[in-house]
Prior knowledge:
This protein is an all-alpha fold and 171 residues long. The protein is built from nine helices and no strands. Helix 5 runs antiparallel to helix 6.
Amino acid sequence: MENGESAARRIASDALSRAARTRGQLEILLERKGIEAEAAGTVLDRFEELGLIDDVGYAEAFVESRHRVRGQGGRALSAELRRRGVADDVVAEAVGALDPDLEFETACRIARSRFNRMSGLAADVKVRRLAGFLARKGYSGSIVARAVRQTVDEAAAEAAETLDGMETDEM
């Protein structure tokens, strides 16, 4: 069985040709394929020197993409990057680069979308479900509270406007 540096290079290159990977992900892959730790380390060090593995760039792109597309909050992003083998300091820097105002706006946007699909539920049930939804998305307690409050307040204001409009039409 092939277990040296050439095998490590081939396996890592194949994996990187399909998608960006962290060093941690590649280490796990190589270990699973039976590559000796020393050979894997040598190859991965060389790949880092060449810029083929870039955990910092990976983390930054991951945070931006997952926040924008999936609406994930900082805690969820941190946990996922750690599961992918990214170092804690790199994770902290990438997640710390998230603009707090943008994170709040995103939380409000996805809360409003979810709120609009909860017609027919009692107000306290909507609030509880929205808070749970945002918490599972990885938002901090303070952002969850503010986003839920703003979403409920906006919905109430829109409902009041609709009622006012209906009363005006009847006159």
